[in-house]
Specification:
Layout lengths: L1 E2 L4 E4 L2 E15 L2 E12 L4 E9 L2 E2 L4 E4 H11 L3 H8 L4
Antiparallel strand pairs: 1-3, 2-3, 3-4, 4-5, 5-6, 5-7
């Protein structure tokens, strides 16, 4: 389920505006939760991607936030880890 909202959020690089977000509902037995992925932009224009875990629409664990340049480094590092690359990128690996 995709969501769009322009809300402010705190990051290690300062306040950022949420540009886009998606929530992937999941279930493990009777437990229901969602994994959330959001595109953020800092006041200086730097884009960030944040991953979080939530139940009932409330984040339950500290989110992991990556700068776009960190994602570039992640993609490069995946070249040395084909199993992870296949799991994350699918057929693009």
């Amino acid at each position: 389920m995709a969501t769009k909202a322009a809300t402010k959020t705190a990051t290690p690089w300062g306040a950022a505006k949420k540009l886009e977000g998606l929530s992937l509902p999941q279930r493990a037995g009777e437990k229901r939760f969602a994994s959330v992925v959001e595109l953020l932009e800092t006041e200086r224009g730097e884009r960030l991607v944040r991953f979080a875990y939530s139940t009932g629409g409330v984040a339950r664990r500290g989110p992991v936030t990556l700068r776009v340049r960190d994602l570039d480094r992640l993609r490069a590092a995946l070249a040395e880890h084909p199993g992870l690359a296949e799991a994350i990128l699918g057929g693009e690996a």
